[in-house]
Design brief:
mainly alpha; 2 strands; two-stranded antiparallel sheet
């Protein structure tokens, strides 16, 4: 194991964890998770990330890098009125759909037939409200939020991968440097807490199905593309089957979905990581080690995050989602003939409207598909 392999894996794990842990906490809060359930969520998702990355890298002998679903966490955080056990049921449902996509070829083709502009519009509608919270937080707590935003903007010019981590570090330093007492941390290993799922049809449709779709369209597909761009043949069916199965196991302990990584994977795939492409898969083992370490030290990290003002957490989450929002908006409106359908999806998903107990993400998807089908029918009649 080369030093460059270990360091690249450590950076990738820290970027993946530190830049989006605020979203996990927001998602847990939206489902009413207790502190023990939140801790179990973080530990479980870290452990399945480590296990899945190590297993797939060993199995395929290529650097398969996994991560938790960032847009999935944002989707969960945007939900309202769903109990934690119902959320676990939705997580299991999404995991089952991922496994079936890897096993059943027609289902994979059906997902591939979903217009990318509509899938991206749904994702943009889910992410945009989080970004809009940043100006509100800056107006409410300018002394804390404005320096954080300034550091984010400055570091982004130098190295975008570290911008969110730097912003989080500055926010924590300002919080505890201005009189906020340090949290008392019990030096004990975290534990997994099982949760029996509660099955609710409205939750499966309103949360489980959109969670599956955003994970596939916004994480797995780009993750496969990054791997292919690095010169490797993506093990699509193996990756979907393994990540889906591990997501199901993690869900029993409160964790949401696991998927292929894109941004953090790019950190692990360069020539500087290992000059021999045939041996570069070992970065997956180091990456797995660091995720296991982050999971075991979760209580210490979470105690520090819980001690800072909620506005800081919301700001960090909003800053972390700017780039994914830009990507989703760009993809949503890249095809002129699909722009109205994409806009319909985005507006409906961003509205936060809920009907029959089903959240806005599903209604946005449904509205966008309806517009897309009407436009397709019109074009066929013209021809």
């Amino acid at each position: 194991m080369r030093i460059s392999t270990i360091s690249a894996a450590a950076v990738a794990a820290l970027v993946g964890y530190g830049s989006t842990i605020a979203l996990i906490l927001a998602a847990a809060a939206a489902l009413g998770a207790s502190p023990a359930q939140t801790s179990s969520w973080v530990l479980a998702i870290c452990l399945v990330t480590a296990i899945g990355t190590a297993a797939l890298s060993l199995w395929t002998r290529i650097p398969v890098i996994l991560a938790w679903s960032t847009p999935g966490a944002a989707l969960i955080a945007a939900t309202h009125g769903i109990a934690f056990a119902e959320g676990v049921g939705a997580f299991l449902f999404a995991a089952l759909l991922i496994v079936l996509t890897g096993v059943i070829r027609p289902l994979g083709r059906l997902i591939g037939a979903l217009p990318p502009s509509i899938a991206s519009g749904m994702l943009a509608g889910v992410l945009l409200p989080f970004c809009l919270e940043v100006p509100k937080d800056a107006a409410a707590l300018p002394g804390l939020v404005l320096p954080v935003v300034a550091i984010f903007a400055l570091i982004r010019l130098i190295n975008p991968a570290y911008a969110v981590l730097a912003a989080l570090a500055v926010g924590v330093a300002l919080t505890f440097g201005t009189g906020t007492p340090l949290p008392a941390v019990a030096m004990a290993l975290p534990s997994l807490q099982g949760t029996l799922p509660v099955w609710s049809l409205s939750t499966l449709i309103g949360l489980g199905l959109p969670l599956y779709l955003v994970t596939m369209a916004s994480q797995n597909l780009p993750g496969f593309a990054v791997l292919q761009g690095a010169g490797y043949e993506p093990p699509v069916r193996k990756a979907l089957t393994v990540t889906g199965a591990l997501s199901g196991i993690g869900a029993l302990f409160g964790a949401h979905t696991l998927n292929m990584a894109a941004i953090t994977a790019a950190i692990c795939l360069g020539d500087d990581v290992h000059p021999d492409r045939a041996k570069r898969w070992t970065v997956g083992l180091s990456y797995a080690f660091w995720w296991a370490v982050l999971g075991l030290f979760g209580p210490v990290i979470l105690a520090g995050i819980h001690a800072v003002p909620p506005a800081l957490i919301a700001t960090i989450a909003g800053l972390a989602l700017i780039n994914p929002t830009i990507g989703a908006l760009s993809a949503a409106f890249s095809e002129p003939r699909h722009r109205f359908a994409a806009a319909t999806t985005l507006i409906t998903a961003a509205s936060g409207v809920a009907a029959f107990g089903i959240g806005a993400a599903f209604w946005g998807l449904l509205a966008g598909l309806a517009v897309h089908l009407m436009e397709s029918l019109r074009d066929r009649l013209k021809r």
